[in-house]
C-alpha cells in the first residue's frame, strides 16, 4: 500500500433542509485501501460517498474535500477541476445505471466517453484498441458471454458486474460503490464483493463501498468507517468491530442479527 491519499475529507458538513446528513466528518482514504462504510439507515453513508465526487455539494464554509490531492469542493462550491478529476473515479450505483435498451457491450463502452469524446461514443465509433479493452473488461468480470444482450434482459448480478466493467474501461484509479449488493441475491452479492476485493488486491485500486450488510463489510473490508447521525463513530480495522462497538453503532437490535444463534 502506498501512502498517497486518494480522498481527504476535512470537517465536512451537509444539510438537507433541517436535517444534518454529515456533521463535521473527517476521513482519509489512501491508495490500495479497501474501506467499508457502514452505519444505520440515514447515517450519512451515501451522502458522504456522493460528496467525494461533487454529486452532493457540501455546506458553505463547512470543510473541504480533496481527491488525488486536488480540490474537489470547498466552501459550498464544486471545483472547476471536478470534471477532470471524475475521469479517475469509478462510481458504481445500487441500481446499476445501465441503459436498458443498449447492449451490455455498449453500456460498458460508455465508460470511455471521457477519453474519446461524446459524439464518437454516441455513434459507436470506438477505436479498435478500445473495443478490445471492453471485451477484456467483460471477460474479467465474468460476463463476456452476454456482451450482445440488452442490459434490460440481464440479471441484477450480471448488470452490476457490467457496471464494474464500465469503470475498468474508464481506467478508474479508485472505485466508489454505493450499496452495490443491496438488490442482489446472496450468491450474486458474494460474486460482486469478491470482484471488488480482487480489483483492490490485484490492481491496487482503492475501493470505498457502502454496505448495510455488516457481515460483508467485516469479511471483505480490512478497514471500516462507521457513521451515526452524520458523525464518524468508528474508524479502524474490521476485526475491532466487537459486540459493544456494533451495539453502539446500531443499537441493541443488532444483537438479534449477529448473535441470535448463540442464545438458542
Task: Give your account of this protein's structure.
There is one protein chain. The protein is α/β, with parallel strands linked by helices and 264 residues long. The protein has helices spanning 45-52, 82-86, 104-109, 113-116, 118-122, 128-141, 156-169, 186-203, 214-220, 243-250, 254-258, and strands at residues 5-16, 19-30, 34-38, 64-67, 70-74, 77-78, 89-92, 174-178, 206-210, 223-228, 231-237. Strand 8 (174-178), helix 8 and strand 9 (206-210) form a beta-alpha-beta unit. Helix 6 packs across helix 7 (156-169) and helix 7 runs parallel beside helix 8. The model has no long low-confidence stretch (mean pLDDT 89).
Give the SSE map.
Elements: E1 5-16, E2 19-30, E3 34-38, H1 45-52, E4 64-67, E5 70-74, E6 77-78, H2 82-86, E7 89-92, H3 104-109, H4 113-116, H5 118-122, H6 128-141, H7 156-169, E8 174-178, H8 186-203, E9 206-210, H9 214-220, E10 223-228, E11 231-237, H10 243-250, H11 254-258
Parallel strand pairs: 3-9, 3-10, 7-8, 8-9
Antiparallel strand pairs: 1-2, 1-4, 4-5, 5-6, 10-11
What are the key terms here?
single chain; Rossmann fold; six-stranded mixed β-sheet
The biggest beta sheet reads: 6 strands, mixed
| Overall CATH architecture of the largest domain | 3-Layer(aba) Sandwich
Low-confidence stretches: none
Find the count of extended strands (DSSP E, 2+ residues). Answer: 11
Helix content: 25-40%
Write a short abstract of this structure:
Helices cover 36% and strands 25% of the residues. The chain has 264 residues and is of the alpha/beta class.
